[in-house]
Design brief:
Shape: elongated
Structural class: alpha+beta
Number of helices: 30
Largest sheet: 8 strands, mixed
Distance between the termini: 83 Å
Strand order of the largest sheet: 4-5-6-1-2-3-11-12
Helix content: 40-55%
Length: 734
């Protein structure tokens, strides 16, 4: 019976269809590791979708620096999440076809209820970690889609049903009587046909069920969808009638009231941005089936034209792509991935011509340019910086006030502060009429500034969409801060542990030396008091020698607690390293069958540092590598400049010295995970079982004392790589 009913629905004349290509694209994009080649082949097989992609990439939404002529290039630029959202949004737009609907169908009310319910679903899901907000939003948009299917195919019959139904329960009864299925069942079936998430299809299916059954639903999204729809059927969801539904999703009345206010505000902003002129856009009234009925077509002419016009289609596509951008931001594996996803999203959504990034360097109180060196002007952007104390800069003002600012190329217009040379130079790099500075701030922590270049005629649209831009900037700030924390936190922990161990070791050395000195003094006094040829003199001599040996052992620990750092001087690292590498090679490496190779990058500068400390650091790392490679292997030493580390202070017209890297890499067995967790901590042995466990702790302490940073990467049976980053010029650390 069920199968026959679905077959009947499947043969409706105006049922929105997804092509097999679209279905397979959605299915492929949902896989964790989507096959890009398969996706290219699929899209290429559908001329309409290929044309839509190329139209999108060639439009002002993207405004690429170069022409894209292949599907592969399009997918690489947009990314798989955006492709998936584009496919789904194109399918949903097919449903909203006003020409097929009855002249008495109130599209205004239908759209308002669907969109408000979707927004409320998303906000309720955000309060419950077990429900996905993006799925909740799509479920809210889809929950009444079955009504459109019925109205598009049986306009006269369904118009009568709507007028006869005072509530959702009566509507469902009339639908089952006339069509053998309810609009919820049709909507759920359509979700499954489109291969959307099972959670979404179930949420749509049970949206008109009873509360007793919903309370035992397996999917939290089912409860969220049911509660949101029921709350919007009440005249006052904040009152007593809404209590059962609030209890269903465990939300307090004050919290729900705040969410409903947020929904109304978001809805009002959207309607205003569309220019629909709906007077009651934010007013609340209960939604019933009869709300979908109007007396004549004239009541919905304006909203129909504006709702289903090209402008809204672009807006709906933009919102769909926004979720793809947010998903990519969250899933990005590093800071370059975050900024690339952000740039892609801003270009597609807001038509930006050019985007630059300046990240905060807290240590030096700078805003430093950040860009892929391979991009146009990438090297120029990566080489510049400006002081966070520059009050005349648009970027600094936006960051300090946590507010988007803008200026025009030819005048000090907009809401920009006084003109600065730094702003002019950055604006020239953008090459656009207007420059926007969008701050990335997270809980008062200044992360950076997004600089957006746009043409004059598009600037008002960008100002109007400042709310969405701010959301993107906050999410980007969160993602960047997360990756910075993940990178620096282990180093900070290691430094704190090493510092604590250093303090403890200093106290131990002090406490041991004091009694040793006293014992040694008493032995000397005792030796003087005894006759020179007394038999005990030999024993006293042995005791004194052993005390001396203990003193030497204690002394050997002192380099860890207080490394001997001398005055800094200019050093040619290549010459310095060649001098002792040959010695280590002959005495340790060659007998073990270990080769060593050193490479110096082009234009490698002299650095101002402590040569003895650098010598001790590299010798320790080479000895550790040699001890790990019991069957021979290779050690590579590479000296290179850090790309983009040298900055031009464009507001001060001077250069800031960059940094260099010393890389020591081996082909050994790698470092076990349990040792990696405590790699630079004292007394955790990395290789030899008979070692003291101080070698890498001393290395870490020495690197820190010459103002450097050290990191390590390792792979099982593939070797380990230590990277030491040092400033070109610095003074001895305090």
């Amino acid at each position: 019976m069920k199968k026959n009913l679905l077959e009947k629905i499947g043969h409706l004349e105006h049922l929105p269809q997804l092509s097999q290509v679209m279905l397979r694209i959605i299915d492929l994009c949902q896989q964790d590791n989507a096959d890009r080649d398969a996706l290219i082949q699929l899209i290429s097989s559908d001329p309409a979708l290929t044309a839509r992609l190329m139209q999108l990439l060639g439009s002002a939404w993207v405004n690429l620096d170069k022409e894209i002529r292949s599907v592969e290039s399009a997918i690489l630029f947009l990314g798989i999440p955006e492709i998936k959202n584009l496919a789904i949004s194109m399918a949903v737009l097919k449903v909203f076809d006003a020409e097929k609907l009855s002249c008495h169908f109130n599209l205004n009310a239908f759209w308002a209820h669907s969109f408000k319910t979707a927004l409320l679903c998303k906000k309720l899901a955000s309060c419950d970690e077990s429900a996905d907000p993006n799925e909740a939003y799509l479920a809210g948009l889809m929950h009444d889609i079955g009504k459109l299917v019925f109205m598009a195919n049986f306009p006269e019959i369904y118009d009568e049903i709507l007028k006869e139904s005072r509530c959702d329960a009566e509507l469902a009864a009339h639908e089952r009587e006339r069509f053998s299925m309810t609009h919820a069942e049709v909507g759920s079936w359509l979700c499954r046909k489109w291969q959307l998430s099972p959670m979404i299809s179930d949420a749509v299916l049970y949206v008109e069920d009873t509360q007793d059954r919903i309370a035992h639903a397996a999917y939290p999204l089912v409860k969220v969808m049911f509660a949101a729809n029921q709350l919007y059927s009440l005249a006052d969801p904040r009152g007593e009638d809404g209590t059962p539904f609030r209890e269903l999703i465990h939300i307090e009345n004050d919290r729900l009231s705040a969410l409903l206010d947020d929904v109304d505000e978001t809805y009002r902003s959207l309607v205003d941005s569309f220019g629909m002129g709906i007077s009651d856009a934010s007013s609340f009234s209960s939604f019933t089936p009869q709300s979908l009925c109007v007396e004549s077509k004239s009541d919905t002419d304006q909203i129909s034209e504006e709702l289903f016009g090209d402008a809204l289609n672009e807006k709906v596509r933009a919102y769909a792509l926004l979720y793809g951008t947010l998903e990519t931001l969250v899933n990005a594996g590093d800071i370059p991935g975050v900024l690339k996803a952000l740039e892609m999203g801003i270009k597609i959504l807001f038509g930006a011509s050019s985007i630059l990034y300046f990240l905060v360097d807290e240590e030096d109180s700078l805003l430093t340019g950040y860009a892929n060196p391979e991009k146009r002007n990438g090297r120029a952007i990566s080489s510049i910086a400006l002081s966070c104390a520059n009050p005349g800069s648009l970027l600094v003002t936006a960051l300090n006030q946590n507010e988007m600012r803008h200026r025009h190329a030819t005048e000090n217009g907009g809401n920009s502060p006084s003109k600065s040379m730094a702003d002019e130079q950055i604006h020239r790099l953008l090459g656009t009429d207007v420059m926007f500075a969008l701050p990335m701030v997270l809980h008062e922590k200044k992360v950076g500034v997004i600089v957006i270049g746009i043409d004059q005629d598009q600037a008002p649209m960008l100002i109007q969409q400042s709310g969405m831009l701010t959301i993107l900037a906050k999410l980007a700030a969160t993602a960047v801060d997360h990756h910075q924390y993940r990178t620096t936190q282990p180093v900070l922990i290691q430094k704190e542990r090493a510092g604590a161990a250093s303090d403890a070791m200093g106290k131990v050395i002090h406490e041991i030396n004091n009694p040793l000195l006293i014992i040694s003094s008493y032995l000397k006094m005792l030796s003087i008091k005894l006759p020179e040829r007394h038999p005990a003199q030999n024993e006293l001599g042995v005791i004194d020698d052993e005390i001396g040996r203990i003193g030497e052992l204690v002394k050997s620990l002192s380099p860890f607690s207080q490394p001997p750092i001398r005055e800094f001087e200019w050093i040619e690292l290549g010459t310095l390293f060649n001098g002792f590498i040959e010695m280590i090679k002959q005495s340790i490496l060659t007998p073990k069958g270990i080769e060593v190779k050193m490479a110096v990058g082009p234009h490698f500068p002299k650095i101002k540092s402590d040569g003895n400390a650098l010598k001790q650091i590299v010798i320790n790392l080479m000895k550790n590598a040699a001890e790990a490679m019991t069957s021979g292997g290779k050690i590579y030493i590479v000296l290179r400049q850090v790309p983009g580390s040298e900055k031009v202070m464009i507001d001060e017209m001077r250069k800031r010295s960059g940094a260099v890297e010393i890389v020591v890499e081996d082909t050994g067995p790698g470092i076990p995970d349990d040792i990696m967790e405590h790699l630079f901590e004292p007394y955790h042995r990395s290789t030899r079982k008979d070692g003291s466990g101080l070698g890498l702790s001393i290395v870490s302490t020495l690197v820190k004392s010459i103002n450097g940073k050290i990191t390590c990467k390792t792979r099982k049976n593939r070797g380990s790589k230590f990277v030491i980053q040092l400033p070109v010029t610095s003074s001895p650390s305090s």
